[in-house]
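Feature request disguised as a bug: please show the residue count (438) next to M18 family aminopeptidase in the output. Example input:
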Amino acid sequence: MNAVDSTSRSEGRLERLCEFLADSPTPWHATRSMLRHLEQGGFTRLDEKADWQLEAGGRYVVTRNDSSLIAFQLPAQGLDALRMIGAHTDSPGLRLKPEATQRSAGWLQLGVQVYGGVLLAPWFDRDLGLAGRVHVRHPDGRLESVLLDVAEPIAIIPSLAIHLDREVNAGRAINPQTQMAPVVMQSDDATLESLLTRFLAREHGLEDVEVVDFELGFYDLQPPSLIGVKRELVASARLDNLLSCFIGLEALLDCDGEQGALLVANDHEEVGSASACGAQGPFLGDVLKRLNAQVGRGGEEALIQLIQSSLMISCDNAHALHPNFRDKHDERHGPRINGGPVIKVNASQRYATNSVTGALFRDVCREADVPVQSFVTRADMGCGSTIGPITATEIGVPTIDVGVPQWAMHSIRETAGTRDVEHLTRALVAFLNRPTLG
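Example output, currently without the count:
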């Protein structure tokens, strides 16, 4: 591929990335978007409640809770190993409480609960939309699940003026219970239910339904942007970890399809992964059992052999070296934005990487002509974790943790490198096309 073709391909991928991010304000929307792209790419949708009829060479996709997804392609000849990519669909944010309606000083506000490890300060003074899943009851008693995306500035969390808090820039704790209820409407009688009825009628034409339950959250309406004089950066909400979902999706659709390959995108990573559709739950294990039973050699022993012959690349963004906070990194392990994918290492197994999986990924990057970096948290700081150790523990599959370097992780708006999108995609395509994993 010449330089012009390579640049055009990269620009097209960045355009698709921005569209995907804008279309995915919640895990349910992200899963729906991924599902649509996979079906357009020739993947057949499966129902977990139905019998599966899998065929060699087939490409399939299944969802759970409408917020987690597993897509896989089967080789034409015998399934003896899977090249797996893992990511997660959820991001930290502010979710509505079940009884969210509250009023203060003549304003309708909506009570929120914190989902995941949110960086709270950037949420103030933002144009906020509302999105998620709503369950309604029709006049005939039928229940229906509806995705809702109110993509307009219906709410804001206003800051307190510095004149009323002169010490704010010296550091002030933020109380999400008392200080972060978004302001929605100047009204003494409006309720969340009345607003949802209006939104459902406008967005879905549902004029005569009762709201039974919901899972809704606020999100920043500022669209994804390519930033910098040379457009070196992409800035958006939910880069952690929709960026990895997108890259894994692109790699699966771009690979040659000759090897056994699987993409899993779990919900609930930001809150510990302990759910039926999270990485600690049985979703991936259930799918692997069905694959082994239908296109593998069948039986428990064969399943163990399949898993141990496979490899999982857990993709979740890494902490890039921050130009204003260089001291927050180990001086030898500060990944550079646009410096290539990052291998994440932790001796206490907060990341699942070991020397075997690390060596294989380095070899994949060498084949793909992609630079590779390493990250280790400073020895005097705590370390986060990913779905990698959880998946390795639950399934037993050899695993490595990698990710694109980014700034401002868990902020309402995060930043990563545009060239790294292409770097990791190329590496994952090479991994999925690799004839052997030895």
